[in-house]
Design brief:
Two copies of one chain form a homodimer.
Chain A (H helix, E strand, L loop, with lengths): L9 E7 L9 E3 L4 E10 L5 E9 L6 E4 L1 E4 L2 E7 L4 E11 L1 H15 L4 H17 L2 H15 L4 H8 L2 H9 L7 E2 L4 E5 L7 E5 L15 H6 L1 H7 L3 E4 L47 H13 L3 E6 L2 E2 L4 H5 L15 E3 L2 E3 L3 E2 L7 H17 L4 E5 L6 H14 L4 E5 L4 H10 L3 E3 L8 H13 L8 E3 L9 H21 L2 E5 L38 H13 L9 E4 L6 E7 L6 E7 L6 E6 L12 E6 L5 E5 L2 E6 L6 E8 L12
Parallel strand pairs in A: 2-10, 11-12, 11-22, 12-13, 13-18, 18-19, 19-20, 20-21, 21-22
Antiparallel strand pairs in A: 1-3, 3-7, 4-5, 4-8, 6-7, 8-9, 8-10, 14-17, 15-16, 23-24, 24-25, 25-30, 26-29, 27-28, 27-30
Amino acid sequence: MRIDDGTKRVVIEDVRPEIEGGRFPIKRIPGERVIVEAAAFSDAHDVVACSLVYRPERALNWSETPMQPLGQDRWRAEFTVDEVGMYRYTVEAWVDFFLTWRRDLEKRAVAGQVAHVDLLIGANLVREASTRAARNEAGYLGEMFTLLSATGDPAARAAAALDPKLLAVMRRFPDKRHAARYDHELAVVVDRPLAVFGAWYEMFPRSCGRTADEHGTLADCAARLPYLAEMGFDVLYLPPITPIGTSYRKGKNNSTECQTGDVGSPWAIGSEAGGHKAVHPQLGTLADFQQLRTRAAELGIELALDVAYQCSPDHPYVREHPEWFRFRPDGTVQYAENPPKKYQDIYPFDFETAHWRQLWDELRSVVLFWIEQGVKIFRVDNPHTKPFGFWQWLIEDVKQRNPEVIFLAEAFTRPRVMQHLAQLGFTQSYTYFAWRNSKSELTEYLRELTQTELAEYFRPNAWPNTPDILTEYLQVGGRPACMARLVLAATLCASYGIYGPAFELCDNRAKEPGSEEYLDSEKYQIRHWNLDDPRSLRHLIARVNHIRRDNPALQTNAGLKFHAVDNDQLICYSKSTPDLSNVILVVVNLDPHHVHSGWVDIPVEELGVGGPRSYQVHDLLSDARFIWQGPRNYVQLDPHVIPAHVFKLRRWLRSEHQFEYFL
Amino acid sequence: MRIDDGTKRVVIEDVRPEIEGGRFPIKRIPGERVIVEAAAFSDAHDVVACSLVYRPERALNWSETPMQPLGQDRWRAEFTVDEVGMYRYTVEAWVDFFLTWRRDLEKRAVAGQVAHVDLLIGANLVREASTRAARNEAGYLGEMFTLLSATGDPAARAAAALDPKLLAVMRRFPDKRHAARYDHELAVVVDRPLAVFGAWYEMFPRSCGRTADEHGTLADCAARLPYLAEMGFDVLYLPPITPIGTSYRKGKNNSTECQTGDVGSPWAIGSEAGGHKAVHPQLGTLADFQQLRTRAAELGIELALDVAYQCSPDHPYVREHPEWFRFRPDGTVQYAENPPKKYQDIYPFDFETAHWRQLWDELRSVVLFWIEQGVKIFRVDNPHTKPFGFWQWLIEDVKQRNPEVIFLAEAFTRPRVMQHLAQLGFTQSYTYFAWRNSKSELTEYLRELTQTELAEYFRPNAWPNTPDILTEYLQVGGRPACMARLVLAATLCASYGIYGPAFELCDNRAKEPGSEEYLDSEKYQIRHWNLDDPRSLRHLIARVNHIRRDNPALQTNAGLKFHAVDNDQLICYSKSTPDLSNVILVVVNLDPHHVHSGWVDIPVEELGVGGPRSYQVHDLLSDARFIWQGPRNYVQLDPHVIPAHVFKLRRWLRSEHQFEYFL
């Protein structure tokens, strides 16, 4: 064992947050805090001091903030990140000679045992500190040195030495010659706010045509934007807009028999018209895309594009770069398979190719191309079927150039794999939310997402439906189920999304019993939607998104707490800002069939409405107001009217001593 | 981010056991297993294979054993260490092309969709494997290649390809070109069995004189050895036998007034007669020490010496190496202090000296000196007051030369510091056992020691008393308390020790109320003990140590389980070997004053005595036998007779069909 400096006596370990031994960053947005804890201790009985050090990666100097002891050798401090990009943090600790001396001097003073030599020891420490101090403090420390090293009553000089001012100055100029530093420099990726808070809408542009027969275009899609803006969405995510292959094209309802006029799956990428950097001719041109993007931006909507790294047999890559594909012994290219199912319209890349570097570079160029086109959000299709190392490299590289880029991982797979994708760099992740329907399922899952280490790096984006996922809950529950799931997604998770217009029009027809595929899925055909259907949820959605924008508590997942209700079909939870200036209390009836009522149990002290006074809960969905008192209150929800309350808590201040108003 | 090989698709993480990110080894003795778990997963849906690889550090080649999948991407395998020294282990994993192909072929076969090209793909994998295989298997694989690549009915060839024999052979010669390896090589320190299982006895040689007036010698100590052997102790630990300083020597009962004839504290090390490598003249010579050691070895007793790195003012180091001490501004050496307490008879080393390397080397030479004298066990005094890095270096270095050496850490301090000392290399550790007296305290603490990660590296040595620790429980409880604590220490912990003869003679007189110091402590004076006192526990101790040697279940802490009793003054637990061939069930009355009875709740299935038949519990302390049936049985213990049962479970086999005997 090689020891470089045997005089470093402090051990630093168990620094948190630290993901997988420091291999991966945690995530934040500007304004968020990073609360750091560490264990730091020394041998013997000397006093240890501990600092959190941090900096934006681009900064030359570290900032430093003292850590506070929590007892049992643990320490805590925090810093706030304020700019997008990468930050670093780590911990320093040292045996503090002055603090040790001062603690002992206090004990000596109490025992009446201060000797001249004790003061001389402190005097020397003060003199040394004066050489490290700035001019002003150096002068003060020089005076203190003179005082401590003079002759005269030791007790009086001890009292002077124990002056809190001396302590404060000495703390600023510690002797760090033997300081230890934690052996990992940990990272924080700071994203823009949309990484945490946003309402997403997925839509197929080709279904935006003016008539049922027409193949919609990007221009038609642009015409649909005001409808989305009215509903209050922040992001419009488009399935691939790239050219669609014709070989083995799938017909309606995923049929292997393709009929004339069938439009094919947008995920079968590439044709004579081009590959991942081209626009499907039936949708329009790059110029049309630019117009769509510009119009969206005017309405406060940002576009998200799909990144699906796979090819149709007609993709130019297949001809130009056969070395990126796997060939079978019969000379054909290996298509995608999940035996016995065959996906002959899709060629996966062979990531084990000897030419992996060129393949990676080309795939990165796809993302960089669309970034040049002004796209800053990518929804990545099935990232768990491409190597993890590839994603880590790609995302790190792209974010070094463009730290504002957001990558959403569309992986529905085993927990560890989903977590690993988030760890290696994906900004956001799809979740199991769609399949968490009961109160216990929702509670357990959301607690895991928001109250464990996952909260440091896994940012959930909750979708009640997607083009692949029409859950049995929605199939069976219809419109009431859609309403309940909308409110749950939008209030449990700061980021959520819906696939529309199927969602707002409550399309709940599955392809077949037991399937989660939509009947007549837009993945394989054009659908024409009646947006003005009176049963549409568009106004409810607008209301919900409006509430989200108005209430900071709903813009983060940090303040989520679940509360008891004596009815398992009713779920109750609150979200609040740290200062309790904004508290939202949500109650949802999870049963789409029956009216349910029950008594909710509110932790009134925690939510700032404790004490004997009444308080008001204001339902932001219905605008109804209720006067509540104490922790136990009654609720009743009819799913056929609206299955949820989204209450804003208002403290009730009225009394005979005050004017009558609500805070 | 630098990627060397993008084709490594498997991620390996969360390998356990792994202490502090792999910085520290786990501990074992020969014959013990290391059960390793890991997470390993790949992108996509390919089949992953995973191996545990391990070797003794001296070996050139790694051994390999396949890990079994536990689900959710976790894997498990184990290996057994069989020699003292250091072992290494880590994990390898790879996407297994053959296993993937075979899984898919099974599905194709079920669906009746096996094509010629599918078989050709497998044939190529088999051919490649044949180039990696040994001659015999290569021949077989060549035949299988011919079969798979031939023409003819694909279904029949698929059946042949699915032959388990082919699977078994292919598993032995996997394609590891893209294999990933976990990025830490983890370590196991393998100690000799005494590191886990041993009964220790601490005794002051100077109190072994034949008369009360006499200063005992090492020769007197040797004469005492048969007494210890009779009691069944494995280790005799001697407080420092080095020369004792005279400056500021402490008098009886730690008085600062030293009277003529006062013998001083053995921990005030060093005088004109020498320092850490000399024998105190009043005890004898190095030759006497050798005779003591030899005689002890003949009786199966090993000596443990004290390592106390501190000096009396008279130690030769003070004169020869003033640079190893801290000087005060008045030119005097800094003595040990805990203000306002002063220990002027003790000079600590200054581990922050610029000459720390020379200091470390000299301190190491002390241990090496005594190793040359045949000592292999060191009880280290207050290791937590010397730098952690020093100990890590010292122990690693010494154990590289002499892997059989055992270091016991005498640190009674905060949990994290005690754990850290064990992590950095101490073989065994003193514990908080002395202060855990109630059922809940004992249960919680022993569970922590034996059923958490601590069990991997922290080996408890339980002492009911030491020269520094006469607990209030012993003071108040007297002889019944001593009996209870003896049985608890000896059966809860595979390693335990007592400080005698104070313990077996039930000396319970404290220096003053509220103090844990013995009155007339042997630390400062000679005591003359009446070993033949009829109230001595020597015969009980002999019995307990005999039981420990006879019953393998008591020789490890792995099989400890606590069982419910409906009386809080009764504690019940069992220890068993993994195969249940030896099951010991202990019940202790924790109240030294009153008879207690209660119903114990035995997990009969777990302990192998389930079913309707009765079983016998044989009290190895009293030789009484009881017939029990089912989980709930009655016990009653009188602390004034003996406060414990140490039952051996014996399966009751008698029935009308069998001869009458106990297994």
